[in-house]
């Protein structure tokens, strides 16, 4: 029997296996077709005299699990509504904000900068920061408060909304959300 005849002879068995894997006849037909295409494309890798059925079933199983893993990461968006709502703020603003922030951070007193970095950036509690700095907890709290106030002054911030995208870019991105 030729390789082509053996492939064709295995189609009903492959289809039954595919239906048992996915539980959907249409999807099973797609799996069988894809498995046969992969098998035909790499038929030179099949060793004559070995079990063609096992080889085809392995290919089908691998196709099914590859698709299964891929579909777990995908979101169906047939009408394009989700894609239409995807937008991001320009990165230039964030980069410039970070440059401004670093310059302002460098202008803080060393003890305030240290306390702010320990508590605000490194995630230490006030108690842990006080132990690291070798001072009282109240001193660390005071330094952090003064550092935050001074940073807000240096960066001309009135609220958290002032830091980030400018009004024009924020309005464009926000307009796309409905």
TrEMBL record:
<dbReference type="InterPro" id="IPR013324">
    <property type="entry name" value="RNA_pol_sigma_r3/r4-like"/>
</dbReference>
<dbReference type="InterPro" id="IPR007627">
    <property type="entry name" value="RNA_pol_sigma70_r2"/>
</dbReference>
<dbReference type="InterPro" id="IPR013325">
    <property type="entry name" value="RNA_pol_sigma_r2"/>
</dbReference>
<protein>
    <recommendedName>
        <fullName>RNA polymerase sigma factor</fullName>
    </recommendedName>
</protein>
<dbReference type="InterPro" id="IPR039425">
    <property type="entry name" value="RNA_pol_sigma-70-like"/>
</dbReference>
<dbReference type="GO" id="GO:0016987">
    <property type="term" value="F:sigma factor activity"/>
</dbReference>
<dbReference type="GO" id="GO:0003677">
    <property type="term" value="F:DNA binding"/>
</dbReference>
<feature type="domain" description="RNA polymerase sigma factor 70 region 4 type 2">
    <location>
        <begin position="100"/>
        <end position="151"/>
    </location>
</feature>
<comment type="similarity">
    <text>Belongs to the sigma-70 factor family. ECF subfamily.</text>
</comment>
<dbReference type="InterPro" id="IPR013249">
    <property type="entry name" value="RNA_pol_sigma70_r4_t2"/>
</dbReference>
<dbReference type="InterPro" id="IPR014284">
    <property type="entry name" value="RNA_pol_sigma-70_dom"/>
</dbReference>
<dbReference type="GO" id="GO:0006352">
    <property type="term" value="P:DNA-templated transcription initiation"/>
</dbReference>
<keyword id="KW-0804">Transcription</keyword>
<dbReference type="Pfam" id="PF04542">
    <property type="entry name" value="Sigma70_r2"/>
</dbReference>
<keyword id="KW-0731">Sigma factor</keyword>
<dbReference type="InterPro" id="IPR000838">
    <property type="entry name" value="RNA_pol_sigma70_ECF_CS"/>
</dbReference>
<dbReference type="Pfam" id="PF08281">
    <property type="entry name" value="Sigma70_r4_2"/>
</dbReference>
<keyword id="KW-0238">DNA-binding</keyword>
<feature type="domain" description="RNA polymerase sigma-70 region 2">
    <location>
        <begin position="11"/>
        <end position="73"/>
    </location>
</feature>
<keyword id="KW-0805">Transcription regulation</keyword>
<dbReference type="InterPro" id="IPR036388">
    <property type="entry name" value="WH-like_DNA-bd_sf"/>
</dbReference>
């Amino acid at each position: 029997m030729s390789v082509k005849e053996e492939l064709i002879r295995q189609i009903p068995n492959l289809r039954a296996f595919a239906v048992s894997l996915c539980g959907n006849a249409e999807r099973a037909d797609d799996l069988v077709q894809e498995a046969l295409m992969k098998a035909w494309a790499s038929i030179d890798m099949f060793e004559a005299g070995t079990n063609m059925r096992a080889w085809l079933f392995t290919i089908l199983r691998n196709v099914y699990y590859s698709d299964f893993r891929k579909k777990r990461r995908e979101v169906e968006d047939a009408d394009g509504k989700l894609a239409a709502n995807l937008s991001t703020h320009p990165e230039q603003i964030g980069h410039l904000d970070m440059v401004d922030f670093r310059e302002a951070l460098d202008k803080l007193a060393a003890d305030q900068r240290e306390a702010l970095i320990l508590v605000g950036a490194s995630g230490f509690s006030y108690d842990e920061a006080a132990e690291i700095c070798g001072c009282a907890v109240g001193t660390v709290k005071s330094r952090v408060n003064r550092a935050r106030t001074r940073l807000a002054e240096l960066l001309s911030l009135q609220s958290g909304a002032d830091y980030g995208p400018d009004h024009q870019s924020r309005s464009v991105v926000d307009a796309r959300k409905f």
